[in-house]
C-alpha cells in the first residue's frame, strides 16, 4: 500500500508509523484466544439482548436449536419434511442393513441406528438438510480396528466393544465441540477427504465381491492385494446365480443413478432404487427358496424397538486402547464428513451451519446411540443429498424418518430377513461407485500438484495399506505442506509501476521499473525460526545478484502478519551484514502485531525510528533526501 | 500498495492486473525446488566462470574450502592461529577427559577425539572461528540412549556401539548436507536450543554431584528427581575432602570466568583455568596420595596415537535401533549447536558460513572419527569462543590444536592419569553454569510468550523427563505454533489514511477513515485447507458486525503468498453467501503464484476479470463508478 505523494519529501503529519506502546499481554492473549476458538463470535447476538429473560431465551436457542425453529414451524413446512422423511426412510432400511454387514454387527443394529439418533439430532443439530444415518467408511474402519484385536468368534463381546467405541466417539465429538476445537477437523483437507473417500470406496467395492460372487471363504484384510488374492484363490466357490442376480441389481441401480444425473427432478427414482432391490430380492428369495440355490439372505430380524445397551459398555483394559483408537479416528472422520456435507448443502440454500454446534449434536447423538443399541452415525452424503432434493425444510425430516423407522422396527422388520446378501452387495457397490470422484482428482492434478499428492496419498494409502494409515499419511503430507509453506515463504522483489507510486512484483509485472541503488523486497509471512535462515540467505542473495552497487535495502513487511524472536534477530543480522557493506536497511509498514513485538524487543530502538516507514514511497523519498547523508551507528 | 490516482475512475493503461497465462508446471516446480534447497544459489559464482579449468577450480574450492584459504595463507595469519591453537588445546585436554566421563567412555577417547577430527574440519569446514571438540550435552545423551538398551557391564561392547553411533551421526550429517536438507535444522528454533541447553546444563550439573561429593553409589537416571533422591539416599558416603577440593576448584574457575566477563582481554585467564585445575589437581593428588584420602583419579592413560576402530563398528540388529536413534538425535543437536555457534561468531566478523557445507564437514569429521577411536565431535560454544577471542584467522588453529594434541598423546598423556575426578566435576560444573541463559529466557518471556513456552518445555522436559523427550516435546510445541499460525492467519480491516490513498489497519491507525458501504479486509497468508473455515467465518463476521448495510467487500490479497483449492473454494463460497445478501466481492492484487492458480482453477473466470484490481484505490474507484450498476450473474 503506497501513498499518493503530493507534497514534500518528509513524512507529512498524521502519516507516520504509529509507534504507540504495545498492548498488554492479556489484551493480546484474549484477542488471540478469541480468534482461535471463537472466530465466529457466537455469543454476540446473545450479549446484545438488553433483557435478562431474552438473554436466557437466546442462549437456550443457541445451545438447543430446536427451540429456534420449532416455534416457527407450520404445516407448509411439514408437508415438505414429511415427503423428505419418507423418502430417506426408504434409503435408511437397505443402507442400515448393508452397512451393519460392513461393520460385522447384526443387521438389526443398522436399523436401530436409524431410529434413536435422528431424534437427538433434530433437537440439537443446526443443519436443515442433514439426514442422519450410518456410513460405509466408518463402519468398515470400526470393524477393521476393533476386529484386529480380537477374534470375531465372540460376537457378543465384539458388539459390546462396538457400542463402547460409539460411546467414546460421542464423548470425543462432544468434547471437541464443547472445547471449540473445530480446528482439528480443519486439518482434514478437502483433498484428503476426496482421496480417503475414493480409497475407501475401492476397498469396500472389493469387499462386496464376496457377497456378489457368493463366495464362502474370504480374507479378513481390506487391502487391494489381499482381497484380489483371496478372490482368485477362492474362485471355484463362485456361484453363477448369485453373480447374475448381483450384476442385474447393479445395472438397475446404476440406471436409476444415471436417470437422476440426467433429470435431477427424478431424484426419487434413484432414492427408491435400493428399496426396490431389497423388496424384489426378498420376494424372489422367498418365492424360489433362494437359500437352496446358493443365494444367502440376511437372516432373522426380530420385531421390536432398540433394547437398552448402556449395561454392555465394556471398558476392559485389554481392549480399551483399540476401542479408544477406533472411537476417536471414526469420530473425527464422521465429523469431517458430516460437517463438510452439512455445510455444502447449506451453502446451496444460503443457510449457515455452525461447526462446533454440529460437533456437539453429533456427540450427543452417538452417546445416546451407544446407550440404545446403535452404532456410529453421522450425516452420510447419499442420504443428505436425497433429503435435500426431496425439499426438506427443517430437521423435522429426521423426526419423520425416526417415526417411520419405529413403524418398520415394530411391524415390518421380519420381512427384510429375506433380503439376499447379493442385493445388499449391489446396493453398497452402487453407492461406492458414486464416491470415487475422478473429476475432482483430475481437477486437483491440473490446478495444484501438491493437493493432488495429498489426495493420492490418501487414496493409495487406504487401498493398499489400511484406512487409518492412509488417512494419517495423507494428513501428515498436508501438515508437511503447511510446514514447508512456513519454512519457505515466497518473497519477491518489487519495482515501481510506471507513472504511479505502486510497487509490484517485477516478475509478475515486467513493465515495472527498478531504481538504481535500491532493492525493494516484499517478505512472505510469517518470519520466524523455521524460515529465518532461508530469509537471511534469500535477502543476501538478492543483494548479491544486483549488477550495480546497492545503497538501500527496503523490506516491505506489510504482508508479514507474525514474527518471533529468531525472526527479529535474523533481520538485525541482515542489517549488520549489509551495514558492513555500506547497504542501509529500511523497514516498511510493519503490521500491528509485528510492530508491537519489534518495540518490545527493542528492535525499533536498534534500527532507529527514522528507518521505519508507512509506505514504500515514503521510504524511497526519505532515502533519496534524508538518509543518504546520515548513518546510524551499529549497536 | 495503492495507486496515486491522478486521472479518471477507470484503470489507466498498463496499470491493470496481469492476467497472462500461468507458467508451466515444470517452471514453477524448478523454481520451488531451487527456493527450497538452493536458496543461497551456491553455484552461481561457479557457473559464471567462463573457463572450464577455472570452473573446476572454483568447484573444488567450493566443495573443499581448504583450497580457498590455504593458497592465501601467510605467516601473519599463522601467528594468530598458533596462539589460538595452543590456547584451545589447553581447554581441549580437560574438556576431553571430562566429557568422556559424561559419555561413560574411557578418558583417552576424549583426548583422541581432539586429534583426528580437527584436521578433517580444517580441510572441509567453512568457518574460520569454529574449534572442534566434544560437547557435554551430546556426550550425556549418547550415554543415556545407548546405555539404556544394554548393561554397562560390558564396556567393550558399549564403546563399540558409541563408535557405531558416531559413524551413523557422520553419515546422517553428511547426507543432510549433501541433500541440502538444512531445513531440518531450521526447526530447532533458538528458543528450543536455549531451553535444551539450560535443561541439559541442569542435569549435567546434578550428575557432577557424584564426583564433587565423592559418592560411591549413584543413579543411572538423569532426571532431577531421581538424581536428588539418589544424592539424599547416599548422603552418608559424602567425603568432605573431596567436597572441599571441589568447591575450591569451582570458586577458582568461576573467578576466572568473572574476570573474563569484566575484562574481555583477559579471556586467556578463563581459558587456562581448567588446565590449571587439572595440573594443580594432578600435583596435589600425586603428592598427597589422594586415593588414600578418598580422592579418586582418572586412572591409567596410555601413551600413543588413536588406534583404528573401523573394525569395531557393530551393526548387530539387537542394538541397531537405539544406536541409530542415538546417532541421529545427537547428530541433529550437534549440527544445530555447531552451525548456530559458527554462524554467530562469523556474523561478528562479517564473515559467511554455509550451513550445508558445514553439515558435510561435520559429517566427514564424524565418519573419519568413528574409524579412529573418536566419538561425536562438533563445534562447542566454549572452545569456539576462546578460539575467537584468541584471534584465530582460519581453520588452521584447528590444525595447530591437532598437532598439540598429538604431542600430548605421544608424550604427556600419563601425567593426566592423576587428574582427580573432583577437578573434572568442577570443570564441567563451571562450564554448565555458563550455559543456563537466564537473561535470554527472561527476554523471551517479555517479548514472546509462545517462544518462552517453547523454551520452558525444552528446559523442564529435559530436566524432569529425559533429554530426547524434552527436545521432541519442544519441537512439537514449535511445530504446533507454526500450525496454529497457519490455521489462524491474522486478518484485519483497513481504512483510508486521511488525505492519501493508503489503506491501513484501523486498529493500528485509529485515525483512518472507513467508507460507508465498503468493507476492506487484508487477509493473512496462506489461505488454504487448514484455515479456510476460519477465514470464511471471520469474513462473514466482519460483514455481520458492520452497523450499516454493506455493498462491497474488498479482499486485499497482497499479503497472501499461497492459496490452495480449498482456499479458493472458500472464497467462492463467501462470494456466493454474500451475493445472496447483495454484497459484491472484489479481489485486490493477487500475487504471482496465487493469480496463476486462480486462473488455472477458473476462479478468475467465475468472479470475472472486472472484479480483480491491482490496488485498493483502483477497486474503490471502480466500485463507486462502474460496478455499482452492473451485476455479475452467479455461476
UniProtKB/TrEMBL annotation, chains A, B:
SUPFAM superfamilies: SpoIIaa-like. It is a multi-pass membrane protein. One of its GO terms (molecular function) is secondary active sulfate transmembrane transporter activity. The chain crosses the membrane at residues 80-99, 119-145, 157-181, 187-206, 266-288, 359-378, 399-416, 422-438, 450-480. It holds the Pfam family STAS. PROSITE patterns: SLC26A, STAS. It is found in: Membrane. CDD domains: STAS_SulP_like_sulfate_transporter. Residues 508-623 form the STAS domain. The keyword Cell membrane does not apply. One of its GO terms (cellular component) is membrane. Keywords: Membrane, Sulfate transport, Symport, Transmembrane, Transmembrane helix, Transport. This is STAS domain-containing protein.
